[in-house]
Design brief:
This protein is α/β, with parallel strands linked by helices and 261 residues long. The protein folds into 2 domains: 1-80 and 173-261, P-loop containing nucleotide triphosphate hydrolases (Rossmann fold, 3-Layer(aba) Sandwich), CATH 3.40.50.300; 96-171, no CATH class. It has helices at 43-50, 73-78, 96-104, 112-117, 119-139, 157-169, 187-203, 216-221, 240-245, 247-253, and strands spanning 5-14, 17-27, 32-36, 58-63, 66-67, 81-83, 175-179, 208-212, 225-230, 233-238. Strands 6-7-8-3-9-10 form a 6-stranded mixed β-sheet, sandwiched between helices. A 4-stranded antiparallel β-sheet has the order 2-1-4-5, covered by helices on one side. A hairpin with a 2-residue loop joins strand 1 (5-14) and strand 2 (17-27). It is globular, with a radius of gyration of 19 Å. The structure holds adenosine-5'-triphosphate and magnesium ion. The site of adenosine-5'-triphosphate (ATP) has 12 residues, from strand 2 and helix 1.
Length: 261
């Protein structure tokens, strides 16, 4: 069986800095992979390489059997990869609902010409989009549906992160990349996030998830596939318990909050 995602010997250099150093891993359909590692290890850079924000200096990224190395981001999204960002990229002045509809944009087919010359078609498509967006908002553990007409910028921090996930799901991805989804969440909100991800997986058994996480509560909830990056290198991979016990991992975290994990 071929992997859904194959990252093969990927190196990413920024000038003299090696942000990713010969990274190789494979991911099966329907699995969850947690990526851990200290600040500046290269985790977000990995997402940027997979989603086409950066073309790697060396190596290949294959998704669903296709080489997507350096493909433009919109093309990668169209092929089924969605993501959230470490720092919010919501449209703060747009409503919660519109932010989700924007996430569908790449899949909607009605354009300006349809609106002008085939208004019924455009209207029908918009109505369908609203329905789908509302369904996504209802599935979130937060009050997103109730607050769907509010500007996204007025949401509480945890709800903004939930909205980012709903927006990413709007493109109906096969793989979703979550960059520190629990950042800024308290323990109860983090537990709700874990429950959201678990429910999502139950509803979409084929969906694959990569989580970048500093919060070991989240990683512990998805213990099957964990990998640790340090200075751009993949220093450990496997089940959470094994990765956590790995001396290289403990050394990498020495002096940081996760050292007592
Ligand atoms: N566009 C860029 N140009 C130059 N250097 C970059 C660029 N993007 C990332 N880096 C550097 O690459 C390294 C890895 O950064 P990255 O953001 O991937 O780390 P991270 O593991 O996500 O860290 P954090 O946990 O703090 O989010 C850092 O040293 C960072 O400064
Ligand atoms: Mg990061």
């Amino acid at each position: 069986m071929s992997a859904l995602l194959a990252v093969e010997n990927v190196t990413m250099r920024f000038g003299g800095l090696v942000a990713l150093d010969n990274i190789t891993f494979f991911m099966e359909k329907g699995s969850v992979l947690a990526v851990i590692g200290p600040n500046g290890a290269g985790k977000s850079t990995l997402f940027n390489v997979v989603t086409g924000v950066y073309r790697p200096t060396a190596g290949r990224v294959k998704f669903d059997g296709v080489d997507i190395t350096g493909m433009p981001t919109h093309e990668v999204v169209r092929r089924g990869v969605a993501r959230t960002f470490q720092s919010s990229r919501l449209f703060r002045d747009l409503s919660v609902l519109d932010n989700v509809i924007v996430g569908m944009h790449t899949r909607a087919s009605a354009g300006v010409l349809d609106v002008l010359f085939r208004p019924a078609v455009a209207r029908r498509e918009l109505a369908t989009a609203v329905e789908k967006a509302e369904a996504l908002l209802r599935e979130s553990s937060g009050p997103l549906y109730e607050q769907r007409y509010r500007p996204a910028g007025t949401l509480a921090q945890a709800d903004r992160r939930r909205l980012e996930i709903a927006r990413a799901l709007a493109s109906q991805p096969k793989l979703i990349l979550l960059d520190e989804p629990s950042a800024g969440m308290d323990d109860a909100e983090t537990d709700a996030l874990v429950a959201d991800i678990e429910r999502l997986r139950a509803q979409h058994p084929e969906l694959s998830v990569i989580l970048i996480e500093h919060d070991m509560r989240v990683v512990e909830a998805f213990p099957e596939h964990v990998m640790c990056i340090d200075y751009g290198r993949l220093i450990a991979g496997g089940r959470f318990e094994a990765v956590r016990a790995n001396p290289h991992v403990q050394e990498a975290y020495l002096g940081t909050a996760a050292a007592d994990a």
